[in-house]
Write a structure and sequence with these properties.
The chain is built from 19 helices and ten strands. With 594 residues, the chain is α/β, with parallel strands linked by helices. The protein has three domains: 225 residues, ABC transporter transmembrane region fold, CATH 1.20.1560.10; 167 residues, P-loop containing nucleotide triphosphate hydrolases (Rossmann fold); 59 residues, no CATH class. A six-stranded mixed sheet has the order 6-7-8-3-9-10, with helices on both faces. The chain has a four-stranded antiparallel sheet with strand order 2-1-4-5, with helices on one face. A hairpin with a 2-residue loop joins strand 4 and strand 5. The longest helix has 53 residues. The structure holds adenosine-5'-triphosphate.
Length: 594
C-alpha cells in the first residue's frame, strides 16, 4: 500500500505515519482498550490484598473469606493474562503493519528517484535506512506506544487509588517525581543527537561492508584483506563507542527513575507507618498503598524507556524523511504530448550538458540527426562524452529544452515513460542479476519465449556458448555474473536489450571485452535485426564500426567530425590518427610471441 502521494513533502516526520495510524486505528484502539482493561484489573489486586490483610490483622479471617480473596485474585490474573495477549497481538501487529507500509512507500519512492540521487546517496546508507531505521520506527510504534499508554493509564490510576486511601500520603509520595520530568526533558535532546550519530555510523558500516563484499575479487587481487579488515574494525569500534555513549544517556535515565521510585517508597514507609500507628489508615491500607506505589514505579521507569524509544523512532523517521522528501530530477511535463508516430529519428540541436560540480561541460554544442534505420557509430577518446550522450538519450539526466528531439518533438515535452519504453539501452557497466542465463536475457520481457531468447542470444553470438554451460539457458550465473567471462557477460547484456525489440538501440561500448572479430560479427549481424530501428553504437575500437552508415567523432564533448569510414579517413586528421594507432596496436598484439 502507499500514501496518496508517494514521497510527498510533509511538515514533520510524524505526519509521515499519520495515514497509517488512521488506516489501522481499529487495531490501535482495540489494543489500547485491552491494555486499559489489564491496568484496571491489576489495580484490583491490591484492593483484594488489603481486604485479606485487614481481615487477618483484625483476627476476623475465615477460611471461606481467604479462599474467596485467593480465587478473586486468580480470576483477575486470568483476565490480565488474556487481555495482555489481546493487546500484544493488536498493538504489535499494528506496529508491524505501519512498518510494512512505510517500507513499501520507501521502496516505491526509491524507484521514482533517478541517477543524480543515487550518485549522492550510497547504497549502504539506503540499506541502513531500510533496516535499522525502520526497525527503530517499528519499536517506537509498538512497544513505545504500549509503554507510553500503559505508563499514563497505570500512573494516573495508581495515583487515584493512592489518593483514595490517603491524599496526604500521596502528596508526600510524589515529591521526588518532578525531578524525573526535568531529567527526561534535559536528556531527550542528548538522546536524539547520540542516536542520530549511532544510525549514521551504522550507515557507514553497512556501506563499507557492501562495498567490500561487492568488490571482493579486486580486494583479493590486491591483497587488501588486512587493511580492509582494519578499517572495518575501526568503523565497528566507532559504532560500538557511539552506542556506549547512547547507552550512558538512557542508562542514566533508567536507574534514576528507579531511584525516584525507591525514594517515594522510603517516604511512604516513614510517613505512612506513622499514619498506621496513629490509626489514620489501616494496615491493609498501608499494604495496598505500597502495592500501588509499586505499580507506579513501572510508569516512572517507563518514562525513561519511552523517551528513549520515541526519540529513536523520531530520529529514524527524520532520516527516512530525507529520502522520502528527495525529488526526482527528471519529471514528466504537466501535459505530455503523445509520442509522435512513425520510425524514430533523433535530432540533437546544440546539445550542452554539464554534470553537477564539474567545471567543464561533458557535451558542448553537439548537433546532428540520426535517422530511423541508421546504424551510427560513436567514437572518441576516453572522457570525450560518449557515455554522457547515451545517458541523455536514455533519459537518465535532465536536458535543457530544445536540445534533444525525437521525430521533431522536444523530449522535455514527452513523458519519461514514453521515451524510456522506446529505448533499449546497454550501459557500459554490465549489470546482471544473480539468476539464470534465461532470466537475465528475458529480464525486460518476461513473456518472451525460449525461442525468442535464443534468437537474441544468436544475434549476440553467445547461443553456442550458453548451450555448452552445465544447464544451458537454466545455468545460474552467480552474483552479478561471476561465473561468466567479461565478454560473455557483455553479450548476455546485449541480448537482453535486443530482446526488448524497441525502436531505439543504444549500445555504450558494451562489447569492449569481446574479441575484435566477434564484435565485428555481432555488429554486422545487428544490421539484419535493425531495419526500421535507430541505432547508436559507441565503441572505443574503430574497426568494428567501419561498416556503420555513419561514424561520429567526439572530442572533449564536441562533435569533431562525422561521415562514413572512408570519408573520415580522408577528411579528419584526428580520426585517421586514431584509426592508424589502433591498427598498429592490433598488429603489434598479433605479432607478440605466444
Ligand atoms: N556522473 C558524473 N559526474 C560527474 N562527472 C562525470 C560523470 N560521468 C562522467 N563525468 C565526466 O564527464 C566527462 C565525459 O565522460 P563520459 O563518461 O561521457 O566519457 P566517455 O567518452 O564515455 O569515456 P570512456 O570512453 O572512458 O567511457 C568526463 O570528463 C567525466 O569525468
Amino acid at each position: 500500500m502507499q500514501s496518496d502521494v508517494p514521497g510527498a513533502r510533509v511538515a514533520s516526520p510524524l505526519e509521515r505515519i499519520r495515514p497509517f495510524v488512521r488506516r489501522y486505528s481499529f487495531r490501535l484502539v482495540g489494543g489500547l482498550v485491552a491494555l486499559l482493561i489489564v491496568d484496571l484489573l491489576q489495580l484490583g489486586i491490591p484492593r483484594l490484598v488489603k481486604r485479606a490483610v485487614d481481615l487477618l490483622s483484625q483476627g476476623a479471617a475465615s477460611q471461606t473469606a481467604l479462599a474467596q480473596s485467593a480465587f478473586a485474585i486468580f480470576a483477575l490474573a486470568v483476565g490480565i493474562a488474556s487481555c495482555r495477549f489481546v493487546w500484544r497481538y493488536l498493538i504489535l501487529g499494528f506496529s508491524r503493519m505501519v512498518e510494512r507500509d512505510l517500507r513499501d512507500d520507501f521502496f516505491r519512492h526509491l524507484l521514482t528517484l533517478d541517477r543524480p540521487f543515487f550518485q549522492k546517496k550510497p547504497v549502504g546508507a539506503i540499506m541502513a535506512l531500510a533496516t535499522n531505521d525502520l526497525a527503530a520506527v517499528q519499536l517506537a510504534g509498538g512497544m513505545g506506544v504500549v509503554a507510553c499508554a500503559d505508563a499514563a493509564i497505570m500512573g494516573i490510576a495508581a495515583l487515584a487509588c493512592m489518593a483514595y486511601i490517603s491524599p496526604q500520603l500521596t502528596l508526600i509520595a510524589v515529591i521526588p517525581m518532578p525531578l524525573l520530568a526535568v531529567l527526561t526533558r534535559v536528556l531527550s535532546a542528548r538522546l536524539h543527537r547520540r542516536f542520530l550519530k549511532v544510525q549514521e555510523q551504522f550507515s557507514h558500516l553497512t556501506e563499507f561492508a557492501r562495498n567490500t563484499i561487492t568488490n571482493i575479487r579486486l580486494l583479493k587481487a590486491y591483497t587488501q584483506e588486512a587493511p580492509q579488515a582494519e578499517v572495518f574494525g575501526r568503523l565497528g569500534r566507532q559504532y560500538q563507542q557511539d552506542n556506549l555513549r547512547l547507552a550512558r544517556v538512557h542508562g542514566t535515565l533508567f536507574p534514576i527513575s528507579g531511584l525516584v521510585g525507591n525514594t517515594s517508597l522510603l517516604l511512604v514507609i516513614f510517613f505512612g507507618g506513622r499514619l498506621v500507628v496513629g490509626s489514620v489508615i489501616t494496615v491493609g491500607d498501608f499494604v495496598a498503598f505500597i502495592s500501588y506505589l509499586y505499580l507506579l514505579t513501572w510508569p516512572m521507569m517507563a518514562v525513561g524507556w519511552v523517551a528513549n524509544l520515541f526519540q529513536r523512532g523520531l530520529t529514524s523517521l527524520g532520516r527516512l524523511d530525507e529520502v522520502m522528501n528527495a525529488k526526482p530530477t527528471l519529471v514528466d511535463p504537466p501535459q505530455p504530448l503523445a509520442f509522435p508516430a512513425g520510425q524514430t529519428e533523433i535530432t540533437l540541436r546544440t546539445l550542452h550538458f554539464q554534470y553537477e560540480g564539474q567545471e567543464q561541460p561533458a557535451l558542448a554544442e553537439v548537433s546532428c540527426t540520426i535517422r530511423a534505420g541508421e546504424i551510427v557509430g560513436l567514437v572518441g577518446r576516453s572522457g570525450s562524452g560518449k557515455s554522457t550522450l547515451c545517458h541523455l538519450l536514455a533519459r537518465q539526466y535532465p536536458v535543457a529544452d530544445g536540445a534533444i528531439f525525437l521525430n521533431g518533438v522536444d523530449v522535455n515535452r514527452l513523458s519519461l515513460g514514453s521515451v524510456r519504453e522506446r529505448v533499449a539501452y546497454v550501459p557500459q557497466d554490465v549489470l546482471l542479476f544473480s539468476d539464470t542465463v534465461a532470466a537475465n536475457i528475458g529480464f525486460g520481457n518476461p513473456a518472451a519465449s525460449q525461442e525468442q531468447i535464443e534468437g537474441a542470444a544468436k544475434i549476440c553470438r553467445i547461443h553456442e556458448e550458453i548451450l555448452g554451460f552445465s544447464e544451458g539457458y537454466q545455468t545460474r550465473i552467480g552474483e552479478r555474473g561471476v561465473k561468466l567471462s567479461g565478454g560473455q557477460r557483455q553479450r548476455i547484456a546485449l541480448a537482453r536489450a535486443i530482446l526488448l525489440d524497441r525502436p531505439m538501440l543504444i549500445i555504450d561500448d558494451s562489447l569492449s571485452a569481446v574479441d575484435l572479430e566477434t564484435e565485428q560479427e555481432i555488429i554486422s549481424g545487428l544490421a539484419d535485426f535493425l531495419p526500421g530501428r535507430t541505432c547508436l553504437i559507441v565503441s572505443h575500437r574503430i574497426a568494428p564500426l567501419r561498416d556503420a552508415i555513419r561514424i561520429m567523432v567526439l572530442e572533449e564533448g564536441r562533435l569533431l567530425a562525422q561521415g562514413n569510414h572512408a570519408e573520415l579517413l580522408a577528411s579528419s586528421d584526428f580520426y585517421r590518427t586514431m584509426y592508424h594507432q589502433q591498427q598498429m596496436q592490433s598488429h603489434r598484439e598479433e605479432e607478440l610471441p605466444l
